[in-house]
Amino acid sequence: MLVLGIDPAIRNTGYGVIEAGGASSFKILDCGVIRNTDRMSHSECLRRLAGGIRELADTFSPDVASIEDPFVGRNASTAIILGMARGAIIAVLAGREIPVYSYSPRHAKKVAVGSGGGSKEQVAAMMAAELGIDVSGIPLDATDALALAVCHAQIAMRPELLHLYDVKPL
After folding, report:
1. pLDDT value of position 29
2. Domain residue limits, the chain
3. What CATH code is assigned to 2-164?
């Protein structure tokens, strides 16, 4: 099973593509960040974000995608912008008929690395150990996306967990 993990943002969207050969057998195929500058309008950022996700979907043909739930803080404007980024991503994946599953950051960290309260650096260290990669040059948004991919793969490869976690596509 090929899983595309996505840590969405309007400026720096992390992505990670893994191949899951079992509940604990993963191979990283690609990871990185779709970057947009602060000078770009939101509409340009969304266009570029959709194009990047489209390119990833076309290149890897993932079976499924895993995306981070939005963090809703005190700033409504930020939440709206993040919602637009998620919408652009989900629309592209839906157009390719790729099921999308959403996980909270805490849930993804707990399933992927064993603790829901880990820092981004701890997630990166766990992904390095889990996937056998050197993460020193990989942006933290990309390692977060890898954790989302691993999270979904671990749950999907263990059918008894699907009901426990009430996992359903968006």
Report:
1. 96
2. 2-164
3. 3.30.420.10
Write out the catalytic residue numbers.
Answer: 7, 68, 141
DSSP state string for the chain: -EEEEEE--SSEEEEEEEEEEETTEEEEEEEEEEE--TTS-HHHHHHHHHHHHHHHHHHH--SEEEEEPPP--S-HHHHHHHHHHHHHHHHHHHHTT--EEEE-HHHHHHHHHS-TT--HHHHHHHHHHHHT---TTS-HHHHHHHHHHHHHHHHHTSHHHHHHTT----
Q: What per-residue confidence (pLDDT) applies to 123?
A: 83
Mean pLDDT by 10 residues, the chain (170 residues): 97 96 85 96 97 98 94 79 95 97 85 73 82 86 93 84 69
Which residue, chain included where needed, has tokens 């981070």?
A: 68
The reported pLDDT for the residue numbered 10 is: 96
Alpha carbons within 13 A on the beta-carbon side of 27: 5
